[in-house]
Amino acid sequence: xxxxxxxxxxxxxxxxxxxxxxxxxxxxxxxxxxxxxxxxxxxxxxxxxxxxxxxxxxxxxxxxxxxxxxxxxxxxxxxxxxxxxxxxxxxxxxxxxxxxxxxxxxxxxxxxxxxxxxxxxxxxxxxxxxxxxxxxxxxxxxxxxxxxxxxxxxxxxxxxxxxxxxxxxxxxxxxxxxxxxxxxxxxxxxxxxxxxxxxxxxxxxxxxxxxxxxxxxxxxxxxxxxxxxxxxxxxxxxxxxxxxxxxxxxxxxxxxxxxxxxxxxxxxxxxxxxxxxxxxxxxxxxxxxxxxxxxxxxxxxxxxxxxxxxxxxxxxxxxxxxxxxxxxxxxxxxxxxxxxxxxxxxxxxxxxxxxxxxxxxxxxxxxxxxxxxxxxxxxxxxxxxx
Length: 386
Hints:
The chain is mainly α and 386 residues long. The protein has one domain.
Protein backbone atom coordinates (compact mmCIF):
# COMPACT_ATOMS: atom_id res chain seq x y z
CA UNK A 1 0.00 0.00 0.00
CA UNK A 2 1.17 3.52 -0.79
CA UNK A 3 0.32 6.67 1.13
CA UNK A 4 1.35 9.71 -0.87
CA UNK A 5 0.92 13.48 -1.07
CA UNK A 6 0.22 13.78 2.64
CA UNK A 7 0.50 17.55 2.84
CA UNK A 8 -2.80 19.43 2.68
CA UNK A 9 -2.16 22.22 0.08
CA UNK A 10 -3.93 21.59 -3.20
CA UNK A 11 -1.75 20.36 -6.09
CA UNK A 12 -0.40 22.71 -8.73
CA UNK A 13 -3.31 23.55 -11.02
CA UNK A 14 -1.41 23.38 -14.31
CA UNK A 15 0.14 20.02 -13.44
CA UNK A 16 -3.28 18.67 -12.49
CA UNK A 17 -4.78 19.91 -15.74
CA UNK A 18 -1.97 18.37 -17.78
CA UNK A 19 -2.29 14.87 -16.36
CA UNK A 20 -6.08 14.89 -16.05
CA UNK A 21 -6.43 15.69 -19.75
CA UNK A 22 -4.34 12.73 -20.88
CA UNK A 23 -6.30 10.38 -23.14
CA UNK A 24 -4.78 6.92 -22.59
CA UNK A 25 -7.23 4.01 -22.29
CA UNK A 26 -7.52 1.66 -19.32
CA UNK A 27 -4.92 -1.08 -19.04
CA UNK A 28 -4.19 -3.96 -16.72
CA UNK A 29 -1.54 -2.99 -14.19
CA UNK A 30 -1.49 -5.73 -11.61
CA UNK A 31 1.75 -7.70 -11.82
CA UNK A 32 3.33 -6.81 -15.15
CA UNK A 33 6.13 -4.46 -16.04
CA UNK A 34 6.96 -2.26 -18.99
CA UNK A 35 10.71 -1.93 -18.79
CA UNK A 36 11.32 -2.40 -22.49
CA UNK A 37 8.50 -0.24 -23.87
CA UNK A 38 8.31 3.52 -24.62
CA UNK A 39 7.28 5.53 -21.59
CA UNK A 40 4.24 7.31 -23.01
CA UNK A 41 2.74 4.62 -25.24
CA UNK A 42 3.40 1.26 -23.61
CA UNK A 43 0.44 -0.83 -22.43
CA UNK A 44 0.75 -1.52 -18.74
CA UNK A 45 0.71 -5.27 -19.25
CA UNK A 46 3.44 -5.25 -21.89
CA UNK A 47 6.01 -7.57 -20.35
CA UNK A 48 6.77 -9.44 -17.11
CA UNK A 49 9.23 -7.82 -14.75
CA UNK A 50 11.90 -10.48 -15.02
CA UNK A 51 11.87 -10.78 -18.80
CA UNK A 52 15.57 -9.93 -18.71
CA UNK A 53 18.22 -11.33 -21.07
CA UNK A 54 20.14 -12.88 -18.22
CA UNK A 55 20.47 -16.65 -17.99
CA UNK A 56 22.30 -16.29 -14.70
CA UNK A 57 19.37 -14.47 -13.12
CA UNK A 58 16.86 -16.89 -14.63
CA UNK A 59 18.72 -19.76 -12.99
CA UNK A 60 19.00 -17.88 -9.70
CA UNK A 61 15.27 -17.24 -9.54
CA UNK A 62 14.49 -20.95 -9.48
CA UNK A 63 17.42 -22.12 -7.36
CA UNK A 64 15.76 -24.08 -4.52
CA UNK A 65 18.62 -23.53 -2.06
CA UNK A 66 18.19 -19.75 -2.09
CA UNK A 67 15.75 -17.84 0.09
CA UNK A 68 13.16 -15.58 -1.48
CA UNK A 69 15.24 -12.61 -0.27
CA UNK A 70 18.33 -13.92 -2.14
CA UNK A 71 16.30 -14.46 -5.28
CA UNK A 72 14.82 -10.96 -5.12
CA UNK A 73 18.27 -9.42 -4.67
CA UNK A 74 19.54 -11.24 -7.77
CA UNK A 75 16.52 -10.16 -9.78
CA UNK A 76 16.89 -6.55 -8.59
CA UNK A 77 20.46 -6.44 -9.88
CA UNK A 78 19.33 -7.65 -13.29
CA UNK A 79 16.30 -5.38 -13.57
CA UNK A 80 18.44 -2.28 -12.88
CA UNK A 81 20.67 -3.06 -15.84
CA UNK A 82 17.81 -3.87 -18.20
CA UNK A 83 15.83 -0.73 -17.37
CA UNK A 84 18.84 1.49 -17.92
CA UNK A 85 19.73 -0.12 -21.22
CA UNK A 86 16.28 -0.18 -22.77
CA UNK A 87 14.42 2.88 -21.53
CA UNK A 88 16.21 5.86 -19.98
CA UNK A 89 12.88 7.61 -19.37
CA UNK A 90 11.77 4.76 -17.12
CA UNK A 91 15.05 4.98 -15.26
CA UNK A 92 14.33 8.65 -14.57
CA UNK A 93 10.87 7.84 -13.25
CA UNK A 94 12.10 5.00 -11.04
CA UNK A 95 15.00 7.12 -9.79
CA UNK A 96 12.54 9.65 -8.37
CA UNK A 97 11.55 6.91 -5.89
CA UNK A 98 15.11 5.91 -5.05
CA UNK A 99 16.65 6.35 -1.56
CA UNK A 100 19.43 8.18 -3.36
CA UNK A 101 17.03 11.11 -3.69
CA UNK A 102 16.73 11.50 0.09
CA UNK A 103 19.10 14.46 0.53
CA UNK A 104 18.90 17.61 2.65
CA UNK A 105 18.46 19.71 -0.48
CA UNK A 106 15.62 17.46 -1.69
CA UNK A 107 13.42 17.11 1.41
CA UNK A 108 9.68 17.70 1.01
CA UNK A 109 9.43 19.95 4.07
CA UNK A 110 5.65 20.49 3.88
CA UNK A 111 5.14 16.71 4.07
CA UNK A 112 7.64 16.39 6.92
CA UNK A 113 5.98 19.30 8.72
CA UNK A 114 2.51 17.79 8.33
CA UNK A 115 3.67 14.43 9.68
CA UNK A 116 5.42 16.07 12.63
CA UNK A 117 2.25 18.06 13.38
CA UNK A 118 0.02 14.96 13.27
CA UNK A 119 2.39 12.96 15.48
CA UNK A 120 2.67 15.83 17.96
CA UNK A 121 -1.11 16.04 18.12
CA UNK A 122 -1.28 12.27 18.64
CA UNK A 123 1.11 12.53 21.61
CA UNK A 124 -0.98 15.35 23.08
CA UNK A 125 -4.32 13.57 22.60
CA UNK A 126 -4.27 11.44 25.80
CA UNK A 127 -3.93 14.63 27.84
CA UNK A 128 -7.20 15.93 26.36
CA UNK A 129 -9.38 12.86 26.78
CA UNK A 130 -13.18 12.93 26.52
CA UNK A 131 -15.57 10.10 25.80
CA UNK A 132 -16.93 12.01 22.82
CA UNK A 133 -13.43 12.21 21.35
CA UNK A 134 -12.87 8.48 21.86
CA UNK A 135 -16.11 7.68 20.03
CA UNK A 136 -15.19 9.94 17.11
CA UNK A 137 -11.72 8.38 17.01
CA UNK A 138 -13.03 4.81 16.80
CA UNK A 139 -15.60 5.58 14.10
CA UNK A 140 -13.20 7.64 11.99
CA UNK A 141 -10.36 5.13 12.32
CA UNK A 142 -12.60 2.46 10.81
CA UNK A 143 -14.13 4.74 8.18
CA UNK A 144 -10.81 6.13 6.93
CA UNK A 145 -8.58 3.09 7.48
CA UNK A 146 -10.88 0.28 6.37
CA UNK A 147 -13.56 1.86 4.18
CA UNK A 148 -11.48 4.70 2.74
CA UNK A 149 -8.04 3.19 2.21
CA UNK A 150 -8.55 -0.59 2.14
CA UNK A 151 -11.90 -0.76 0.36
CA UNK A 152 -12.07 2.37 -1.83
CA UNK A 153 -8.48 3.38 -2.63
CA UNK A 154 -6.94 -0.08 -2.59
CA UNK A 155 -9.36 -2.78 -3.64
CA UNK A 156 -11.80 -0.70 -5.71
CA UNK A 157 -9.65 1.96 -7.44
CA UNK A 158 -6.19 0.39 -7.52
CA UNK A 159 -7.12 -3.21 -8.33
CA UNK A 160 -10.71 -3.04 -9.55
CA UNK A 161 -11.63 -6.00 -7.35
CA UNK A 162 -15.14 -4.57 -7.04
CA UNK A 163 -17.28 -1.70 -8.24
CA UNK A 164 -19.39 0.62 -6.11
CA UNK A 165 -22.67 2.33 -6.89
CA UNK A 166 -23.35 5.94 -6.01
CA UNK A 167 -23.58 7.46 -3.48
CA UNK A 168 -21.32 4.86 -1.82
CA UNK A 169 -18.57 5.33 -4.40
CA UNK A 170 -18.38 9.01 -3.49
CA UNK A 171 -18.68 8.44 0.26
CA UNK A 172 -16.10 5.64 0.41
CA UNK A 173 -13.62 7.64 -1.67
CA UNK A 174 -14.23 10.66 0.57
CA UNK A 175 -13.27 8.49 3.54
CA UNK A 176 -10.00 7.74 1.73
CA UNK A 177 -9.36 11.46 1.25
CA UNK A 178 -10.00 12.07 4.95
CA UNK A 179 -7.32 9.50 5.81
CA UNK A 180 -4.74 12.09 4.77
CA UNK A 181 -2.76 9.53 2.75
CA UNK A 182 -3.07 11.45 -0.51
CA UNK A 183 -5.45 12.11 -3.36
CA UNK A 184 -7.12 9.01 -4.81
CA UNK A 185 -5.49 9.34 -8.23
CA UNK A 186 -1.92 9.73 -7.03
CA UNK A 187 -2.33 7.12 -4.28
CA UNK A 188 -3.60 4.65 -6.87
CA UNK A 189 -0.85 5.46 -9.37
CA UNK A 190 1.87 4.99 -6.75
CA UNK A 191 0.34 1.74 -5.55
CA UNK A 192 0.12 0.31 -9.06
CA UNK A 193 3.78 1.22 -9.56
CA UNK A 194 4.55 -0.64 -6.33
CA UNK A 195 2.89 -3.81 -7.60
CA UNK A 196 4.61 -3.63 -10.95
CA UNK A 197 8.07 -3.16 -9.41
CA UNK A 198 7.52 -4.83 -6.04
CA UNK A 199 10.86 -5.25 -4.20
CA UNK A 200 12.74 -4.30 -7.36
CA UNK A 201 14.32 -1.10 -8.60
CA UNK A 202 11.55 1.48 -8.92
CA UNK A 203 9.42 0.16 -6.06
CA UNK A 204 8.53 3.31 -4.09
CA UNK A 205 8.87 1.61 -0.70
CA UNK A 206 10.74 -1.68 -0.57
CA UNK A 207 12.53 -2.85 2.61
CA UNK A 208 15.34 -3.97 0.31
CA UNK A 209 16.15 -0.25 0.16
CA UNK A 210 16.03 0.00 3.96
CA UNK A 211 13.44 -0.79 6.62
CA UNK A 212 12.89 2.82 7.68
CA UNK A 213 12.84 3.86 4.03
CA UNK A 214 9.97 1.49 3.30
CA UNK A 215 8.06 2.49 6.43
CA UNK A 216 8.19 6.29 6.30
CA UNK A 217 11.35 7.88 4.88
CA UNK A 218 10.30 7.43 1.24
CA UNK A 219 7.62 10.06 1.87
CA UNK A 220 10.22 12.69 2.71
CA UNK A 221 11.57 13.00 -0.84
CA UNK A 222 10.46 16.02 -2.86
CA UNK A 223 9.25 14.93 -6.30
CA UNK A 224 8.73 17.38 -9.12
CA UNK A 225 5.29 18.02 -10.65
CA UNK A 226 6.67 16.54 -13.88
CA UNK A 227 7.66 13.29 -12.15
CA UNK A 228 4.25 13.04 -10.49
CA UNK A 229 2.46 13.72 -13.77
CA UNK A 230 4.58 11.02 -15.46
CA UNK A 231 3.50 8.44 -12.87
CA UNK A 232 -0.13 9.55 -13.24
CA UNK A 233 -0.11 9.28 -17.04
CA UNK A 234 1.44 5.86 -16.94
CA UNK A 235 -0.43 4.18 -14.12
CA UNK A 236 -3.95 5.62 -13.94
CA UNK A 237 -4.99 6.25 -17.57
CA UNK A 238 -8.29 4.51 -16.79
CA UNK A 239 -9.14 6.92 -13.96
CA UNK A 240 -7.81 10.39 -14.75
CA UNK A 241 -10.92 11.50 -16.66
CA UNK A 242 -13.31 10.46 -13.88
CA UNK A 243 -15.09 13.70 -12.78
CA UNK A 244 -15.44 12.58 -9.17
CA UNK A 245 -11.75 11.75 -8.90
CA UNK A 246 -10.83 15.03 -10.60
CA UNK A 247 -12.87 16.82 -7.93
CA UNK A 248 -11.01 15.08 -5.11
CA UNK A 249 -7.68 15.70 -6.83
CA UNK A 250 -8.38 19.41 -7.07
CA UNK A 251 -9.83 19.94 -3.58
CA UNK A 252 -7.94 17.32 -1.59
CA UNK A 253 -6.02 19.85 0.49
CA UNK A 254 -9.05 21.96 1.28
CA UNK A 255 -11.06 18.92 2.34
CA UNK A 256 -8.28 17.74 4.62
CA UNK A 257 -7.82 21.10 6.33
CA UNK A 258 -11.58 21.58 6.55
CA UNK A 259 -11.91 18.25 8.33
CA UNK A 260 -9.80 19.55 11.21
CA UNK A 261 -12.10 22.55 11.63
CA UNK A 262 -15.09 20.20 11.36
CA UNK A 263 -13.86 17.96 14.18
CA UNK A 264 -13.17 20.95 16.41
CA UNK A 265 -16.68 22.30 15.68
CA UNK A 266 -18.33 18.96 16.44
CA UNK A 267 -16.58 18.76 19.79
CA UNK A 268 -17.23 22.40 20.58
CA UNK A 269 -20.97 21.97 20.03
CA UNK A 270 -21.16 18.54 21.68
CA UNK A 271 -19.46 19.94 24.75
CA UNK A 272 -21.92 22.81 25.08
CA UNK A 273 -19.72 25.43 23.41
CA UNK A 274 -16.66 24.13 25.25
CA UNK A 275 -13.27 24.71 23.58
CA UNK A 276 -11.67 21.86 25.59
CA UNK A 277 -14.05 19.28 24.11
CA UNK A 278 -13.53 20.83 20.69
CA UNK A 279 -9.76 20.49 21.00
CA UNK A 280 -10.15 16.96 22.38
CA UNK A 281 -12.23 15.79 19.42
CA UNK A 282 -9.82 17.40 16.96
CA UNK A 283 -6.75 15.79 18.56
CA UNK A 284 -8.38 12.35 18.76
CA UNK A 285 -10.48 12.46 15.59
CA UNK A 286 -7.79 13.99 13.38
CA UNK A 287 -4.26 13.74 14.78
CA UNK A 288 -4.26 10.46 16.73
CA UNK A 289 -6.60 8.72 14.30
CA UNK A 290 -4.61 9.85 11.26
CA UNK A 291 -1.27 8.89 12.81
CA UNK A 292 -2.43 5.36 13.64
CA UNK A 293 -3.98 4.87 10.20
CA UNK A 294 -0.71 6.08 8.66
CA UNK A 295 1.32 3.51 10.55
CA UNK A 296 -1.17 0.76 9.76
CA UNK A 297 -0.62 1.41 6.06
CA UNK A 298 3.13 1.85 6.51
CA UNK A 299 3.45 -1.49 8.30
CA UNK A 300 1.96 -3.12 5.22
CA UNK A 301 4.71 -1.50 3.15
CA UNK A 302 7.50 -2.48 5.52
CA UNK A 303 6.71 -5.30 7.97
CA UNK A 304 4.81 -7.56 5.55
CA UNK A 305 7.83 -7.64 3.23
CA UNK A 306 10.08 -8.64 6.14
CA UNK A 307 8.29 -11.09 8.44
CA UNK A 308 5.55 -13.70 8.19
CA UNK A 309 4.64 -16.72 6.12
CA UNK A 310 3.87 -17.24 2.44
CA UNK A 311 0.89 -19.03 0.92
CA UNK A 312 2.03 -18.31 -2.65
CA UNK A 313 5.26 -18.29 -4.63
CA UNK A 314 5.57 -14.69 -5.81
CA UNK A 315 8.50 -12.88 -7.42
CA UNK A 316 8.73 -10.49 -4.46
CA UNK A 317 9.25 -11.03 -0.72
CA UNK A 318 5.66 -10.29 0.34
CA UNK A 319 4.45 -12.21 3.40
CA UNK A 320 1.34 -12.69 5.54
CA UNK A 321 1.58 -11.14 9.02
CA UNK A 322 -1.30 -11.55 11.46
CA UNK A 323 -0.75 -8.47 13.63
CA UNK A 324 -0.62 -6.18 10.60
CA UNK A 325 -3.87 -7.77 9.44
CA UNK A 326 -5.42 -6.64 12.74
CA UNK A 327 -3.89 -3.16 12.61
CA UNK A 328 -4.72 -2.59 8.92
CA UNK A 329 -8.18 -4.16 8.60
CA UNK A 330 -7.11 -7.27 6.69
CA UNK A 331 -4.29 -5.85 4.57
CA UNK A 332 -1.66 -7.81 6.50
CA UNK A 333 -2.34 -10.92 4.38
CA UNK A 334 0.04 -9.31 1.93
CA UNK A 335 1.48 -12.34 0.19
CA UNK A 336 -2.06 -13.41 -0.68
CA UNK A 337 -2.70 -9.99 -2.14
CA UNK A 338 0.52 -9.76 -4.14
CA UNK A 339 -0.06 -13.21 -5.59
CA UNK A 340 -3.64 -12.39 -6.65
CA UNK A 341 -4.13 -8.60 -6.60
CA UNK A 342 -7.57 -8.64 -8.25
CA UNK A 343 -9.14 -10.90 -5.62
CA UNK A 344 -11.29 -8.84 -3.24
CA UNK A 345 -10.82 -10.96 -0.06
CA UNK A 346 -7.31 -10.56 1.37
CA UNK A 347 -7.63 -13.60 3.63
CA UNK A 348 -7.44 -16.87 1.69
CA UNK A 349 -7.41 -19.33 4.63
CA UNK A 350 -10.27 -19.77 7.06
CA UNK A 351 -8.26 -18.21 9.91
CA UNK A 352 -7.13 -15.19 7.88
CA UNK A 353 -9.79 -12.71 9.02
CA UNK A 354 -10.40 -9.68 6.84
CA UNK A 355 -12.60 -6.96 8.32
CA UNK A 356 -12.69 -4.99 5.08
CA UNK A 357 -14.02 -8.03 3.23
CA UNK A 358 -16.92 -8.14 5.70
CA UNK A 359 -17.80 -4.58 4.70
CA UNK A 360 -17.63 -5.48 1.02
CA UNK A 361 -20.03 -8.37 1.59
CA UNK A 362 -22.38 -6.04 3.47
CA UNK A 363 -22.36 -3.57 0.57
CA UNK A 364 -23.03 -6.41 -1.85
CA UNK A 365 -25.97 -7.54 0.26
CA UNK A 366 -27.64 -4.14 -0.14
CA UNK A 367 -26.76 -3.89 -3.83
CA UNK A 368 -24.13 -1.15 -3.51
CA UNK A 369 -21.12 -3.31 -4.47
CA UNK A 370 -21.01 -5.48 -7.59
CA UNK A 371 -18.61 -7.14 -10.06
CA UNK A 372 -16.74 -8.52 -7.04
CA UNK A 373 -13.86 -10.91 -7.71
CA UNK A 374 -14.14 -13.29 -4.77
CA UNK A 375 -12.47 -16.37 -6.25
CA UNK A 376 -10.04 -17.89 -3.72
CA UNK A 377 -7.09 -19.67 -5.47
CA UNK A 378 -6.60 -23.33 -4.61
CA UNK A 379 -2.82 -23.76 -5.12
CA UNK A 380 0.48 -22.02 -4.43
CA UNK A 381 0.78 -20.53 -7.89
CA UNK A 382 0.58 -16.77 -8.16
CA UNK A 383 -1.23 -15.01 -10.98
CA UNK A 384 0.83 -14.64 -14.16
CA UNK A 385 3.64 -12.11 -13.70
CA UNK A 386 3.17 -11.91 -9.91
